[in-house]
Amino acid sequence: MLSSYNNNNNNRNFVLKLLKPLFILILFCHPVYCSCIIVFSLKQLYL
Questions:
Q1: With contact defined as beta carbons under 8 Å apart, do 10 and 18 qualify?
Q2: Domain residue spans in the chain?
């Protein structure tokens, strides 16, 4: 049980390490990101 908890904790840390640069990237590219989402959703609507 303890090892399983430890493993989950390691996974969470790994995910956080992955998410942090992604989050920074999203913040940095926020207008571009928003316009991409808008364009994508418009494509989904009209195609």
A1: no
A2: 2-46
* pTM across the whole model: 0.37
Which positions of the chain have pLDDT values less than 70? 1-6, 47
Report the number of secondary-structure helices (H) and strands (E) in the chain: 2, 0
Pairwise CA distance, residues 20 & 15, whole Å = 9
Structure tokens at 40: 């994508």
**Separation between Cα atoms, residue 20 and residue 2, nearest integer Å:** 27
H/E run at residue 42: helix 30-46
DSSP character at residue 26: H
| Residue 41 vs residues 7, 15, 16, 22, 47: alpha-carbon distances, Å | 38, 27, 28, 21, 10
